Amino acid sequence: MKLESLENPFVVPLLMNCKNDNEELISSSVPHAIQENGTFLIDLDKLPNRKDVFADDNGVWTMKGSRSKSYSIEKDADGRVLSLNKSQEYADIVRR
């Protein structure tokens, strides 16, 4: 799938509508031993335990991340995400 951009306003609607529009892009299992950078959509409800998502044979990893951003989401009458608009407010950063 080719995206117009990898910026949040383009990616988030794809992710949030994926279950209805592009179900073939969603994995029901955790990819293992991936050797290159990649992005995967995993249906956590299909995993025996949601924490299984961390068992990817790639050792321990730490998310360095960046400053959190806030967006407002516009949906249609059926609940499909139409657009994402950056908000001036900032969200609290939560780390686990």
**SSE pattern:** HEEEE
Number of helical segments with 4 or more residues: 1
Tell me the overall shape. Answer: globular
How many E strands? 4
Q: Radius of gyration in whole Å, from Cα?
A: 15 Å
Structural class: alpha+beta
Helical content (DSSP H or I, runs of 4+): 10-25%
* Main sheet properties: 2 strands, parallel
- Kindly report the spatial arrangement of strands forming the biggest sheet: 1-2
**What proportion of the residues form beta strands (DSSP E)?**
15-25%
Report the span from N to C terminus.
32 Å
Q: pLDDT average, as an integer?
A: 79
Q: Poorly predicted ranges (pLDDT <50, ≥5 residues)?
A: none
Structure notes:
The chain has 96 residues and is of the alpha+beta class. The protein has a domain at 8-56 and 71-86. It has one helix at 8-21; strands at 26-27, 41-42, 71-75, 81-86. The strands form two sheets. A two-stranded parallel ribbon has the order 1-2. Strands 3-4 form a two-stranded antiparallel sheet. Strand 3 and strand 4 (81-86) form a beta hairpin. The mean pLDDT is 79.
